[in-house]
Write a structure and sequence with these properties.
alpha/beta, ribonucleoside triphosphate phosphatase activity, 5 helices, magnesium, 200 residues, single chain, dITP diphosphatase activity, Maf protein, ITPase-like_fam, six-stranded mixed sheet, binds inosine 5'-triphosphate
Length: 200
């Protein structure tokens, strides 16, 4: 069975990726980057989700000699011109402090009324092979930002993003419900046939 490395150190993402790729029927052994603790973190120097996803996937494929998939994702708020965008994980200054990131965003939007709180999650999903071959695809989840968090599921900004057509936030959906409509679900379901084509 071909081993496929999932180039993420975000525990919430890793859980979603494993479920999405397993549901897509990929016959590969899926291993998180934490199985390779000696590999240094990749600097996310790209200016788009696609560039950063490719940086992460290539770095891990080169370091391990195995095919790697990565995502770069974030929340894009219309009234902020698409921010936090690629800075979503470190919006408050501390990388990965989900609660501080969410609180800062809510404070910044405190005076913005519901009709102007449109936002979307975006995800670029990349596959890189040790020989340098790569592919990247993208997915989105459109919605509106709540004024107060609700729900305990998911991670990151899930408690404040209410998908269009839903009455619940992403953090109030089950894992399967979120994966069925999410930016990450859409991107990795599009990447799965590409993985199958390139890796067999
Ligand atoms: P890796 O780079 O190791 O994968 P990371 O958390 O740094 O982990 P990103 O650079 O892609 O990942 O940043 C993604 C951030 O965007 C994440 O920390 C959340 O704040 C937000 N985000 C992305 N997808 C999300 C989702 O499905 N639900 C809620 N927030 C999400």
């Amino acid at each position: 069975m071909t081993r496929l490395i999932l180039a993420t150190r975000n525990a919430g993402k890793l859980i979603e990726l494993k479920a999405i790729l397993a549901d897509a029927g990929l016959p590969h052994e899926l291993v998180g980057a934490d199985s390779y603790p000696d590999i240094p973190d990749v600097k996310e120097t790209g200016v788009t989700f696609a560039e950063n996803a490719l940086l992460k996937a290539h770095a891990l494929a080169e370091a391990t000699g195995l095919p790697a998939v990565a995502d770069d994702s974030g929340l894009c708020v219309d009234v902020l011109g698409g921010a936090p965008g690629i800075f979503s994980a470190r919006w408050s200054g501390t990388h990965g402090d989900d609660r501080a990131n969410l609180d800062l965003l809510l404070a910044q939007l405190a005076d913005i009324a519901p009709p102007h709180r449109a936002a979307h999650f975006a995800c670029a999903a990349a596959l890189a092979l040790p020989d340098g071959t790569h592919r990247v695809v993208e997915g989105r989840l459109e919605g509106t930002l709540r004024t107060t968090p609700a729900g305990t599921g998911g991670f990151g900004y899930d408690p404040i993003l209410q998908p269009d057509g839903e009455t619940r936030t992403c953090a109030e959906l089950s894992a399967a419900e979120k994966n069925a409509i999410s930016h990450r679900g859409k991107a990795f379901r599009a990447l799965a046939p590409v993985v199958a084509e390139l890796l067999g």
